[in-house]
Structures are given as C-alpha cells and as structure tokens.
Design brief:
The chain is built from 3 helices and 8 strands. It has 143 residues and is an alpha+beta fold. Strand 5 and strand 6 form a beta hairpin.
C-alpha cells in the first residue's frame, strides 16, 4: 500500500474473482478493459464497508465521478484464474484516490492501478474544492 502507516481496517476491501469465460479472448487472456470492472467491484465493496456507497453519496447531495484512471498491467489474467482485487483509500483531501492491487492466490502482483474521484455538489453542479464533511465523517476523520 502507498504508505507505511497502517490504514484503518475499513479503509480497505478485497474481493475474490474467478476470471470468467466471457472476459477472455481466444488465448484465454482477460481483455484489458475488464480490469476496470474488477476495480469497480472492489471499490463498491470498499464504499459499502465505509457505509457510503453510491446511493448514499447521491442521497448526501454529492456525485463522485471518476476523473482519472491508471492501470499498470504486470501479468495477464487467465480464464478461470482465481484472483484477489483489493481497493483502499490512499488520499481523501480535495479528491478521493482509491488504489487497487490484483494478486493471484499466492499473493503475486498481477495488476495495480488507481482512480481519482472528485465531489460534485448535485444541486449546483459545482466541483467541491474541499472534501465534503460527510466523507470525512465516514472515514472517521475529525476536523
């Protein structure tokens, strides 16, 4: 993870995925675009764990669009391969950065990446320049 500091337990979530047939090409290698979906599955679990999932974000008055995505493909994923996708909060001030790591069953790194999201006030459609208090509350950060 990005820092040597131990993150709060609920700031990280992992999901197990068996690479399905419909995600692979004729060489049985997962198409590169599906990795983003695997990241999203882990990110949704992370947000559920924080008690701030996409519906709760909307209900709090904020949209959190992804504005940047980075993926580093280290090793390919193969048909029926069991992998673990871990997502964790790396930054929360002014933007929300979620880091990702895909590993095999032995913990070998296969793919890594991150997404950046920003808060948009849904009433005014304005970009929030400071992290909304609701996110800090969900992260357990006091001002």
């Amino acid at each position: 993870m990005a820092s040597s500091k131990k993150l709060p337990e609920n700031w990280s979530a992992s999901v197990e995925i068996d690479v399905p047939f419909h995600d692979v090409d004729m060489m049985e290698i997962a198409w590169h675009g599906h990795y983003v979906r695997y990241f999203e599955i882990a990110r949704c679990k992370l947000f559920d764990q924080l008690d701030y999932n996409y519906r709760q974000m909307r209900d709090s008055g904020y949209a959190w669009p992804v504005i940047d995505l980075h993926v580093r493909y280290v090793q390919p994923l193969h048909f029926q391969q069991k992998v673990t996708v871990t997502a964790w909060i790396a930054e929360w001030e002014n933007r929300l950065r979620v880091q990702y790591l895909i590993t095999d069953t032995e913990g070998k790194r296969l793919t890594k990446g991150h997404t950046d999201q920003v808060a948009i006030n849904m009433k005014t459609n304005e970009l929030m320049l400071a992290t909304p208090a609701i996110l800090l509350e969900k992260l357990g950060i006091t001002a």
